[in-house]
Design brief:
Length: 163
């Protein structure tokens, strides 16, 4: 059960947006799969609603991001991704192998988590940190692949079966 005010309809109203089927479907898609790309969200919305234009999905994402219902992150060498965890200054872990994205709370202190050595007069309200590496599944897969290199397919299959 969701906490009061976290239903998509309530989020839209709180953000001053009209409740439409497209916006609801976009919110549902992001709640179901945080850190999705616009293309992945479009596919989920199309599954939920049927026919919808790519532009309608992008317009909904833009409105929801602008009004603070969604957060857009833009990791280097990756398409923009969207999440509904807003209102805090958390960071992300990203797997270089499979692209999996995981939220991670601030390392130290309160928002903005990091103090610039020289703020150049800026009023800093957010710090973005992305940790890059490999997720446990990709590490395990690489380790298994390395350990079984040179083995017969039959022996490799027996090892995988035991795992």
């Amino acid at each position: 059960m969701r906490e009061p005010g976290t239903e998509p309809e309530s989020i839209l109203r709180r953000c001053g947006l009209q409740v439409t089927a497209q916006r609801l479907a976009v919110l549902h898609a992001v709640v179901a799969e945080p850190h999705s790309t616009a293309e992945e969200i479009e596919q989920a919305v199309r599954t939920r609603l049927g026919a919808i234009s790519k532009q309608a999905v992008y317009d909904a994402l833009a409105a929801l991001t602008e009004r603070g219902a969604l957060r857009r992150i833009e990791p280097a060498r990756s398409p923009a991704r969207y999440e509904c965890r807003v209102g805090d200054n958390h960071h992300h872990l990203i797997c270089r192998s499979c692209g999996r994205v995981v939220d991670v709370d601030c390392a130290l202190g309160t928002a903005p988590c990091l103090e610039a050595s020289d703020d150049a007069g800026f009023e800093i309200d957010e710090a973005e940190v992305i940790y890059w590496g490999r997720c446990p599944e990709c590490v395990k897969e690489t380790t298994t692949r390395t350990a079984t290199r040179g083995m017969s397919d039959e022996r490799r299959a027996r090892i995988r079966k035991k795992q």
